[in-house]
Structure formats: C-alpha cells, structure tokens
C-alpha cells in the first residue's frame, strides 16, 4: 500500500526545511541544495512533477546582515528575509542549472490563498510553469507579510500549496526521521512509525514540542499540515532530508520516514478552501435545533436558529458556527454582516421581512457555502 502510493504519486510538493540548507553561523549551504537538487532531478526522470516549498530565507539573511541571533522583531525578520531570499533563490537557480532544469520563484502570502480569485490565479500560474517543465520554488513573502496575512510557517504553506497545485503527495523534508512511538532522545526503545492510517488525538500527542531551532515548525506543525491535506485526499511523507539518497529510494518503495494516509472523502476544492484556508472573522452560536438541521439534515442556516453573534464581519466573510455548549462544529460564508445579524438573530424569516423589508437572501449561510467540521 505504502510502496504503491509512493511509487504512483505523480505531482509532488516537497517542503525543504531551513535546517537542511542553512545555519545561523554559516548562512546558506549551497552544497546541500546541490545534493537535494540532484535527488529531485532523479525524481523528475521517473516522470514526476515537482514543486518545492523552501524555507531558509531568514536564516541566510541573518548571516548576510551579520546578526547574532534569530531576529525577534518583525521588521528585522523582514529585512533578513529580503536579503536572504535572493541568495536562496540564486542557490536553487545555480543548483538546477547544472542539471539543465529551470526554476521560478513564487512568493505567497495568506491573502493569495484566501482570496478565491487570487487562489485560482496562482493555481493557473503553477500549472503553466509545470507545463513548461519548470520547478516552482515557493516561499512565504515574508518581506511584506504582516501577521494578519502571514501563513506563518512553511509546513502550513506547503500544505496549502499541495492543495493549490492538486498534488498527489506532500513530502516534508527536515532533519527528523519521521514520527516515533516516543521521544527517541529520551527513550532508546522508541521506533519509527512507517505508516499512519489516521491522525488521531493519540498520534497528535506523539508529536510533542518543536524540535529544532532553525525552522519555525516542529513535529506538531508537520502533523497539522498532514492532517490538513489528508482532508483533501493528499497523503504526506515526513522524511529526513539530511540523509543522502533517502528521498529517491523511499519514493521507489524502500523503507524510511513516516507516511500519513489521506482520508478517502475528498472535500471539493471550494469547501476545503472554506474549511482550512479561510480564517473566521466571527462566530455565531446556534440553538440545538439549528445544529441538528445543519449537521444531520444538510440544511442552510437561518436567522431563527442563532442565539448569539460575536466578532465584526461583513457579508461574504467566513464565520464559525458553535453548538449551545460552545463547540465549533461548522464554518461557512455568511450572507449578512454582524450588524445585521445582531438585529435578525432568533427571528423567523417572515418577521424579518416585516421588520426590515425584503432581503436578498433567506439563508444566513447557504448550505453550499457551509462545511461541517
Ligand atoms: N519563510 C521562512 C524563511 O524562509 C521560513 C518559515 C519556516 O521555517 O517555517 O525563512
């Protein structure tokens, strides 16, 4: 099962973590990028289409700016990213040029993924590049991304790119071997888990705290990324990219790393986008009748089922739906602003029309724009 799945994956997003290609003390290691480029070129000769999500801009910028430490303030991080990103892409450019492969730089922010039009536009650009045989090298546009529009870590960015590009597999390369049954630094009897059919809370507990300093993510963000793409039908392989030749041999079916299987149920792209890419701007708390209507009878949300509205949002914004006991159970695009909903909540459609005149929509969230989580 594992072997077949890995052998058959045609379009692969490969995330390369900072610690594989750069260090704070020495900056970028172009020879590591060259080695990875050789391995990726080998995958291409097996007929695979590759997209790379690479970290390392900030870490290489630290060295270029002669900073002593990983910057804490956002403007310094952004300056480091700006000087580091050009060096990073230049290293990839040179590493792949030796192999007669062209690359393209793509810098994204959360905005590009959250806005449907920009999402589709980015998807189109990626497929044209892949059609030309070019390897897109993607990073977050750290230089301009303020906190509200940042994806924040490249494990998450890679999961969003896998969705964007409709990939068959997400590979997360870092300096860890994969998911262990226990912390291998403390427990020598811990073993690597080769196949994870489902990311259960027990599995999530194994992830523990971030392990390396150079990147922003640890095993926990990797599992979150794997969980996200699993919902969309894309499996994730977590692999140690520091071990030479592991990537091409594991993809040919040899043991190594941890593979997380995807759910069979594929949310369609639009619903996946609502559930996982968009961030909620507000909350609606519903009565039990409305919760049942939405979650078991596939109905749309009407104003009469809303008990309480929090947050400031406009028509068209994503909002989360909560059960009476405060559990988030659904998310959708709302047809009314928070101001309007404050007035309409709890009221029947006929009463709303009587009091406020005819409305463009009857549903507060139409079921086509609603995802049960
Ligand atoms: N975008 C950041 C960089 O290139 C890395 C973020 C991360 O490590 O997840 O430095």
Description:
By secondary structure, the chain is of the alpha/beta class. It has 15 helices and 15 strands. It has helices at residues 2-8, 18-21, 30-45, 57-64, 74-97, 110-114, 116-131, 154-164, 201-207, 219-231, 246-251, 269-277, 288-295, 338-344, 349-356; strands at 11-16, 22-23, 27-28, 49-54, 103-108, 135-140, 169-174, 195-196, 236-240, 258-260, 282-286, 306-311, 318-322, 328-333, 370-372. The strands form 3 sheets. An 8-stranded mixed sheet has the order 5-6-4-1-7-9-10-8, sandwiched between helices. A 5-stranded mixed sheet has the order 12-11-13-14-15, with helices on both faces. Strands 2-3 form a two-stranded antiparallel sheet. Strand 13 and strand 14 form a beta hairpin. Helix 8 (154-164) runs parallel beside helix 10. The longest helix has 24 residues, at 74-97. The chain is globular, with a radius of gyration of 23 Å. The model is unreliable at 210-215 (pLDDT under 50). It binds glutamic acid (GLU). Glutamic acid binds next to helix 4 and strand 6.
């Amino acid at each position: 099962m594992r072997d077949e799945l890995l052998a058959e994956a045609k379009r692969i997003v490969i995330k390369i973590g900072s610690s594989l290609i750069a260090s704070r003390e020495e900056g970028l290691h172009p020879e590591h990028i060259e080695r990875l480029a050789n391995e990726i070129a080998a995958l291409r000769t097996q007929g695979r289409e590759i997209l790379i999500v690479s970290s390392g801009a900030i870490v290489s910028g630290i060295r270029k700016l002669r900073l002593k430490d990983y910057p804490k303030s956002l403007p310094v991080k952004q300056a480091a990213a700006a000087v580091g990103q050009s060096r990073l892409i230049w290293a990839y450019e040179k590493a792949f040029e030796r192999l007669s492969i062209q690359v393209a730089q793509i810098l994204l922010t959360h905005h590009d993924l959250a806005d449907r039009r920009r999402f589709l536009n980015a998807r189109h650009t990626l497929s044209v590049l892949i059609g030309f045989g070019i390897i897109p090298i993607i990073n977050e546009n750290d230089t301009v991304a303020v906190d509200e529009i940042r994806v924040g870590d490249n494990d998450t960015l890679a999961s969003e790119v896998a969705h964007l590009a409709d990939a068959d597999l997400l590979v997360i390369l870092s300096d860890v071997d994969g998911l262990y049954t226990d912390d291998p630094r403390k427990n020598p009897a811990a073993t690597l888990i080769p196949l994870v059919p489902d990311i259960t809370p027990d599995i999530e507990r194994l992830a523990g705290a971030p392990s390396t300093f150079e990147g922003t993510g640890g095993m926990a963000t990797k599992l979150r990324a794997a969980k996200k793409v699993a919902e969309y039908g894309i499996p994730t392989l977590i692999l140690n990219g520091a071990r030479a030749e592991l990537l091409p041999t594991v993809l040919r079916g040899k043991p190594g790393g941890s593979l997380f299987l995807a759910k069979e149920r594929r949310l369609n792209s639009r619903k996946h986008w609502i559930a996982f890419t968009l961030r909620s701007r507000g909350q609606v708390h519903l009565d039990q009748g409305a919760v049942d209507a939405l979650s078991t009878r596939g109905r749309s949300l009407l104003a009469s089922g809303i008990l309480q509205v929090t947050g400031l949002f406009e028509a068209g914004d994503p909002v989360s739906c909560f059960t009476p006991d405060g559990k988030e159970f659904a998310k959708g695009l709302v047809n009314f602003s928070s101001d309007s909903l404050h007035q309409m909540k709890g009221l029947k459609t006929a009463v709303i029309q009587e009091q406020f005149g005819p409305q463009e929509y009857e549903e507060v969230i139409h079921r086509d724009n609603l995802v049960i989580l």
